[in-house]
UniProtKB/TrEMBL annotation, chain A:
GO terms for molecular function: GTP binding; GTPase activity. Belongs to the small GTPase superfamily. Rab family. It comes from the Eukaryota. It comes from Cephus cinctus (Wheat stem sawfly). Keywords: Nucleotide-binding. This is Ras-related protein RabJ isoform X1. InterPro entries: P-loop_NTPase, Small_GTP-bd, Small_GTPase. The gene is LOC107273664.
UniProtKB/TrEMBL annotation, chain B:
The lineage of its organism: Eukaryota, Metazoa, Ecdysozoa, Arthropoda, Hexapoda. InterPro entries: FUZ/MON1/HPS1_longin_1, FUZ/MON1/HPS1_longin_2, FUZ/MON1/HPS1_longin_3, Mon1. Residues 142-264 form the FUZ/MON1/HPS1 first Longin domain. Residues 304-403 form the FUZ/MON1/HPS1 second Longin domain. GO terms for cellular component: Mon1-Ccz1 complex. Plays an important role in membrane trafficking through the secretory apparatus. Belongs to the MON1/SAND family. The gene is LOC107265891. This is Vacuolar fusion protein MON1 homolog. One of its GO terms (biological process) is protein targeting to vacuole. It holds the Pfam family Fuz_longin_2.
Length: 222, 543
């Protein structure tokens, strides 16, 4: 069993729900009164796939204009970018294009891109057509998802997609990858029998294996 | 032209109050006043070592608060504290300031997609009614407005600022009219309302207050608001955006930070720390505090460029470790406390937060690793550095610190102190004393007991703080500073006393006699002296 460790940066305009998505995924809850992020927050989480264990180091960045100049600090040497916009505000969708251009200019290695339209619960206020989102995603080589952090829809799939993408990246061209850390897990013999056959997030398997309990710290964020 | 009418406080002339005072001009040592209060032999909490920048008097504090960030000073000083530290550590390349010219172009471009975003947001939150016709708005006790020198609204405390374009226009007109005569408008007084103006760099700050706070105290609060804005943007960025475009809309850069100003203003209404210019410590056994401090020193001692490590619990200081040569100003620490207190999100994850400490270096950002110690210990640890690339080093250090603190039962000790209700003066054995503020001047730390009846509601607490502020103003009045005040009011008797070592503000039962009051003050001082190692931080640890 391989372990892949990758850096994920979450980008997007202010108020689109970047922090809400992560808090939903990592903390399994939704907070209606979340403060705007100042600078950036750091989370770690793990996703277990059939062929690899993926550790994600997630940088949740602030969307405010004043932090714009600090973004390079967070996306530098990232292996994946989670580009989030608000389905109900078209300008947050156009802002994604600036982010993509900026990433293209500044990042050399291959990168997993996932485009996410959040707030799908506000269907009646939708301003971004799903087809348009999908087309643009294909255009930039990203996968497209629509989510609702509020109603917990589609969030798991997003992180799963990142994990699968990183696993593929690591198996594809090992020599190209400089920043993605891949190593064979020492505990592979012990833990593999307990591994679920279908991909699932780590949380669901923690109590099945003693090896897990001993070796893995819980995500630092919760 | 100077519009400054000295407002007569009602109680000064009222027959009910008796004021015993002794001017600062009297001989310094063993001053004997009225019924024989003498300069005490003890100075509880005093220490030759301090990690906080201290000032001798309020005037100095107030002046100094604003002086170091004046434009004049900016031009004079060519070095910044942050670059100084960065240069000292040679093997680390000096990182460019976060706002490079490229980003500035971004800031200035009017067709930014985020522009609409912001106008949308403000349109959403604005009230439908004109605030000037709203009784509730007009009845607010204290308004605070921030606008640009061009008259553009930036912030209003009690309603959406874009509804107040005309009012802010009037404020701007007043300021520029007086400026035309090469003068500066400071305050206008109408009935029980004070209008206080502060012009700083490209910004105008105005306070409209019906409270009993004095003009210098309101000026201080506006200076704090200005510093809060600097803390978010830095002085250099603020100056630069206005140099490029005089009618720049600063709200674009401040979105998400209004809540910091809101919180700061509410914080100042209920916290004596601000007008005292002092910081309160979490009471802890000295051995425990030492152990916590040593853990931090040992774990972080080798980390280059780490300037401050600050541990806060319940908004009180647990410990503060600093880089040799550098001190922290209480005003900067207050901004940090405001940030931590107003940001719930720090509880859910480790953050890597840029923060400018205006007194430390108003032109650059420090980077703060901010996190709570543990789920079961809600104390917030801030590791402030000038190096933006050391997040993971600090993150590891934090883990190690928590593990060690857990092993040595320090987390438990912090929890215990956090959960314990503060001791009241009644429990100390001073029945006629209701409440007290004690500030040790040499360390810029203060102590106060828990509130007891009748100060159990928010209103009563605010009223009491108002009384303290009046006393504070009269001790520090620039024209005629006092050393000692004994004042019998309707609902309580107040005593205020300033010596070379401390400032003391005491609330007594209304009918207390003077000898009893003096007697219990000396008892109190003895008690604080006995407890000083627990209540104050008497050393100043460094990395």
């Amino acid at each position: 069993m391989r372990t892949v460790e990758g850096k994920v940066v979450v980008l997007g305009s202010q108020g689109v729900g970047k922090t809400s998505m992560i808090v939903r995924y990592v903390g399994k809850m939704f907070n209606h009164h979340i403060n705007p992020t100042i600078g950036a927050s750091f989370f770690t989480c793990k996703v277990n796939l059939e062929e690899a264990r993926v550790k994600l180091q997630v940088w949740d960045t602030a969307g405010q204009e004043r932090f714009r100049s600090m973004a390079p600090m967070y996306y530098r040497s990232a292996n994946a970018a989670l580009l989030v916009f608000d389905l109900t505000q078209y300008n947050t969708f156009t802002a994604i294009k600036t982010w993509v251009n900026e990433l293209r200019r500044n990042i050399e290695g291959p990168m997993v891109l996932v485009l996410v339209g959040n707030k799908s619960d506000l269907e009646n206020q939708r301003k971004v057509d799903p087809e348009e989102g999908r087309k643009y995603a294909v255009n930039i080589g990203a996968t497209y998802y629509e989510t609702s952090a509020l109603q917990n829809e589609g969030i798991e799939q997003v992180f799963l997609a990142i994990a699968i993408g990183l696993a593929k990246l690591s198996s594809g061209s090992r020599d190209l990858m400089t920043s993605l850390r891949v190593y064979d897990s020492v505990s592979s013999g012990l833990s593999s029998p307990d591994m679920p056959l279908s991909p699932s997030s780590e949380e669901s398997t923690t109590d099945k294996s003693i090896a897990f309990a001993i070796q893995e710290r819980p995500p630092a964020c919760c | 032209m100077l519009w400054n009418v000295n407002r007569k406080r009602k109680f000064i002339n009222s027959g009910k109050t008796k004021v015993f005072s002794c001017s600062a001009m009297a001989t310094k040592e063993t001053v004997s006043v009225g019924d024989g209060i003498a300069e005490p032999g003890i100075e509880p909490g005093a220490s030759a070592e301090t990690m906080l920048v201290t000032t001798d008097s309020f005037e100095e504090y107030e002046q100094e608060m604003s002086s170091s960030i004046d434009d004049k000073h900016m031009k004079e000083s060519t070095t910044s504290t942050i670059s100084e530290i960065q240069e000292e550590v040679q093997d680390i390349p000096v990182t460019p300031t976060p706002t490079s010219p490229v980003d500035l172009k971004k800031v200035a471009s009017p067709d930014d997609p985020e522009l609409e975003d912001i106008s949308y947001q403000f349109g959403q939150t604005s009230l439908d009614v004109d605030p000037l016709r709203s009784k509730a708005w007009l009845a607010q006790k204290k308004h605070v407005f921030v606008l640009s020198q061009a008259g553009k609204p930036i912030y209003s405390r009690h309603s959406s600022e874009d509804k107040l374009v005309t009012v802010m226009g009037v404020m701007q007109a007043l300021v520029s009219f007086v400026q035309d005569g090469n003068d500066m408008i400071r305050s206008v007084h109408a009935g029980d309302t004070n209008f206080v103006f502060v012009v700083k760099g490209p910004l105008i700050l105005v306070s409209v207050s019906k409270t009993l706070e004095s003009v210098p105290q309101l000026v201080l609060q506006l200076t704090y608001v200005y510093n809060q804005i600097l803390s978010v943007l830095t002085q250099s960025q603020l100056t630069r955006v206005y140099d490029q475009r005089r009618n720049f809309d600063l709200r674009r850069l401040l979105t998400g930070s209004e809540r910091l100003i809101d919180h700061l203003l509410n914080f100042m209404d209920r916290e004596p720390a601000f007008f005292l210019g002092a910081v309160k410590c979490l009471p802890l056994l000295p051995s425990m505090r030492d152990s916590i401090t040593q853990t931090i020193v040992q774990t972080c001692g080798k980390i280059k460029n780490l300037v401050f490590a600050i541990l806060l619990a319940n908004n009180q200081l647990v410990t503060l470790v600093r880089m040799k040569k550098y001190f922290i100003h209480p005003a900067d620490l207050h901004l940090i406390q405001n940030l931590v207190d107003s940001s719930e999100s720090f509880k859910s994850a480790e953050s890597w937060t840029p923060i400018c400490l205006p007194k430390f270096d108003s032109n650059g950002f420090m980077h703060g690793h901010v996190s709570y110690l543990a789920e079961d210990c809600q104390a917030c640890l801030l590791l402030l550095t000038v190096d933006r690339d050391v997040f993971f080093t600090l993150s590891d250090a934090k883990q190690k610190i928590v593990e060690k603190l857990r092993r040595t039962n320090c987390l438990e000790a912090i929890n215990e102190s956090m959960n314990k209700t503060s001791v009241t003066t009644g429990e100390i054995g001073l029945p006629e004393m209701r409440h007290v503020l004690y500030k040790c001047r040499s360390t810029a730390q203060f102590w106060s007991p828990g509130f007891q009846s009748p100060y159990t509601t928010d209103e009563e607490v605010e009223r009491l703080l108002g009384l303290y502020q009046c006393l504070h103003h009269r001790l520090h009045a620039p024209s005629r500073p006092l050393k000692l005040i004994f004042q019998q009011l309707d609902k309580e008797t107040m005593l205020a006393w300033v010596t070379s070592g401390f400032e003391l503000y005491v609330t007594f039962e209304p009918l207390v006699t003077k000898p009893d009051a003096i007697n219990s003050v000396s008892k109190l001082l003895k008690w604080i002296k006995k407890e000083e190692e627990r209540l104050f931080i008497l050393n100043s640890p460094t990395f």
